[in-house]
Amino acid sequence: MSVRTGALLIHGLGGTQFDLGSMHKVLQRAGVETHAVTLPGHGGQPEDLVDVRMEDWLDTVTAAYRELAPQYDTFHVLGMCLGSLLALALCERVQHAKGKLVTLAPPVFIDGWSTPWYRQLRHVVYCIPGMSDKMKVEEDEPFGIKNATVRAIVKAKFARGDNFHYRWVPLACIRQVDRLRRLVLAGARDISCPTLVVHAREDELTSLKSAEFLQAALPDVRVVVLENSYHMICVDNDRDLVTNSVLEFFGYPPAPARRMRGAGKLDA
Questions:
Q1: Alpha carbon distance 214, 226 (integer Å)
Q2: Are 231 and 200 in contact (CB under 8 A)?
Q3: What are phi and psi for residue 67, nearest 5 degrees?
Q4: Residue 254, Cβ density class (10 Å: 0-12 exposed, 13-18 middle, ≥19 buried)
Q5: The dihedral of CA 261, 265, 266, 268: what is its sign?
């Protein structure tokens, strides 16, 4: 009887599976059946996020996990950015023990080099009725990407209006991320499955403090620090190191290096 291995991959805030680069294809080639989930408020317009709550995201990934995990002998959970916070909260909620957990660029703390000094003032705005629904947090250069070529591709996608990532998110949505961060801070020590944390030293959204917290809190954790990427690590300079770190963690051989090709496409 063949052994089946599956994985649930969770995208980032305002994003799509584009956030994960070639992760789906790389894992599928290794023999892992991957499953995507579109988080509530995503895949449409940024305004769709205004009324979404943290519980909506967590319930969605929990439902997907409970449907999929029983179908496999081994089942892994992987998340990017917001998806990594949800992956952490999910594994704590269901006491995940059927596979491993991968957190890519987990923003346990929002304290990266591009976050403004007044970032903490958002907590005051949260208390003003209706204000956080109207305020926009814009996605702007460097778009979480250090590689100039890839950044130009992303900028062109935004200019064309490609529906791969929201151009902005409402501040009300950031409030829900903050609530999720608090949940992870409180519950991380109850996660027992083997965990991989991949984090860029120069992440503009979240510093290495996030990786250090998880390294201290989790009982079985491996940390990989990237030296040549910003936040969007699956599509940036270290993307091959990211995918190969995940493959090795799951027990598979490394994938061949990818190259830039043609009209700004990443060779997967």
A1: 16
A2: yes
A3: -80, -40
A4: middle
A5: negative
In 3D space, the residue among 38, 44, 48 whose CA is nearest the CA of residue 16 turns out to be 38
Q: Which of 186, 185, 200 is nearest to 242 (CA)?
A: 200
Q: Residues 234-260: pLDDT tens digits? A: 999 999 999 999 999 999 999 887 665
- Sole residue written with tokens 């030296």: 227
Consecutive H or E run containing 247: helix 239-250
Mean pLDDT of 205-219: 97
DSSP calls for 66-117 = HHHGGG-SEEEEEEETHHHHHHHHHHHHHT--SS-EEEES--SS---TTS-G
**Architecture (CATH level 2) of domain 5-266:** 3-Layer(aba) Sandwich (3.40)
What are the extents of the domains in the chain? 5-266
Question: Which tokens sit at 254?
Answer: 């490394």
